[in-house]
Write a structure and sequence with these properties.
By secondary structure, this protein is α+β, with helices and mostly antiparallel strands. The protein has one domain (4-137): Glutaredoxin, CATH 3.40.30. It is built from four helices and five strands. Strands 1, 2, 3, 4 and 5 form a five-stranded mixed sheet that branches. The two termini are 21 Å apart.
Amino acid sequence: MTGTNGKLVIRVFGKAGCPKCKILQDRLEDVLNRPDWRDRFEKEYVDVETEEGIVAFCKAECLNPQRIPAFLILKRDPQTGRMEPVPNPSPGKPDPVCGSRKLYQYFGLQTDYSEVGKGILTKAMIEAVLAESLASAS
């Protein structure tokens, strides 16, 4: 199980051969290669086209299957030992950086393929969600 050493987990949901999934993975790797993020987060990839992946996706209960790739920030619950999504203390608050790509109830992002979102998850969006989740999870 992940989430060791007090790190938050970035659970990435994607599928093999998806160019947008590859871009998100690469951007996350670039962000996590910086010491300020690497020491606080670890990444876990989930392929939603596998049995294990679809079960993890369904258990998340907050992601739209038509908005993959996506990621969700998790932390270990000290009472149960289970990995749980980090709650967003201000659900629905407008977000000038992430817009409609930000998850509502928990910290994370999902791809918006509309004309507004254009299917892009930027490093700035990723960093904004990571920073907010750190502040909230503390």
